[in-house]
Amino acid sequence: MPVRSKALSSVRPRPLRARTYTGTPRNLATLARVLRSGGLVAAPTETVYGLAANALDADACKHIFLSKARPQTDPLIVHIEAIADLAKLAVVNPAALVLAKIFWPGPLTLVLPKTALVPAIVSAGLPSVAVRMPAHPLFRRLLRLAGVPLAAPSANPFGYVSPTTAQHVRDGLGDKISHILDGGPCSVGLESTIVDLRQPARPRVLRPGAITRAQLEQALGVPVLAPARRRTPATAVAQIAPGLLTRHYSPRTPVQLHTRLTTREVSSGDPREAWVFIAKPPVLRGKNIHWFDHRGDLPRVAQRLFALLRELDQAGFTRLHIELAPGRAGLADAINDRLRRAAAI
Fold this sequence. Notes:
Elements: E1 19-21, H1 25-36, E2 41-44, E3 49-54, H2 58-68, E4 77-79, H3 86-89, H4 94-103, E5 108-113, E6 128-132, H5 137-146, E7 150-151, H6 166-173, E8 179-181, E9 193-196, E10 204-207, H7 213-220, E11 255-258, H8 263-267, E12 274-279, E13 289-293, H9 298-313, E14 320-323, H10 330-343
């Protein structure tokens, strides 16, 4: 049966003081022991920083939900070190193996029927599991040393802007967790693409990311369905994968989206509101004028998206006006997915 939402906010973990570790062999060995003993470690992946625990330890995974104030209806992604580990956690089909061999390690998550080894809390009580093999070298070394698969959602309070640096983790969870592994800024900056392969003849993207539908179709040789238009507004029902709620990745400052921002629109706007362009505007200047990338290069926009949202959220603006990325496919789709969820009310 699907796990129903539980009120976790009433359970307050003992206040902690997070220590930040560099990726030395000694530190990695220490953090691997923490994970094997049921503890939590915030660690970098190429997408965003994750809050990791032994994915086979239900009690350890419960502490992820408590630390993030995350509803148990939102499942966790399980991270593995080798493709051979996939069959221990999931019922593997040929389509899954094709994608794993092409895109792993990398920012792609596969949803498959789960094995009995995966605790119910990891999958929101559903008979499926989300699995990926990360590419970040420190996370891969941590996986190897820990010797267990690691469940690792984004290392931030549930629903807030995802962390892409160790400092972002400290800002959000520094008094809730004890260990943060600093691996520098995340290179991709957006959460992984999630593809549903429970019916391998009808693959569907559940969450867009850096790996695009076009790439998946080329690899599989069949059409890949787009994300369903229906979005879930609340956390009361178990989700097949994370990142599907209508409101997510959200700053506290209200966000208003625009297909294109114009000079006239910005010039006549409220100076207490921030205006965020995809590329640097040629004329406009001011403390409330911002952009994701000087040239509007979409990989750089994705890489800086969450960091800039966090920066502006702390700057005292009354509203953030944000320009959508141009286009309806590829990386633009992933960027705009995050922005639309950030702006949802």
